[in-house]
Design goal:
- The protein folds into 2 domains: about 60 residues, no CATH class; about 40 residues.
- Helix content is about 50%, strand content about 0%.
- About 10% of the residues have low confidence.
- With about 130 residues, the chain is mainly α.
- It is built from 4 helices and no strands.
Length: about 130
């Protein structure tokens, strides 16, 4: 018989959290199914990950338990303060994703010897077709 040990969110790696969030966002699993499949103990842990690492539709209006907040509709005028908050959230997400991808590239280089570089400016990934 295995012994039950209480886990915290710090016991899960960022890569694991992002993988679970991606599966839920794609519709492959519900938050409850993800919790059961991966043995995640907290009933709201996956939802918390969705708010932190998922798309904007999972963000809460506030920490007081109000309804889920969506990014504003671009056709409606938005107060500058709200737009700034939205942009700050987008920036934070982009920075988290960039840090994650840089960590992945670091592991690929260190553990697998894979060299990943940027394409030179002005070079296209498409092959040019010669007209003749």
């Amino acid at each position: 018989m295995t012994e039950w040990t209480k886990r915290t969110q710090n016991d899960y790696t960022l890569a694991f959290k992002l993988a679970v969030v991606e599966q839920v966002e794609k519709g492959e699993l519900t938050t409850g199914q993800a919790q059961r499949r991966y043995g995640i103990q907290g009933s709201s842990t996956v939802l918390t990950w969705m708010r932190r690492h998922g798309s904007s539709r999972w963000r809460k209006a506030s920490s007081m338990g109000k309804s889920v907040q969506k990014m504003s509709d671009p056709s409606k005028p938005v107060p500058p303060e709200q737009r700034i908050k939205e942009l700050e959230l987008q920036l934070k997400e982009a920075q988290q994703k960039a840090a994650f991808f840089e960590a992945v590239v670091g592991v690929l280089k260190r553990d697998y010897g894979v060299q990943i570089g940027k394409k030179p400016v002005g070079k296209s990934s498409r092959k040019s077709s010669s007209k003749g």
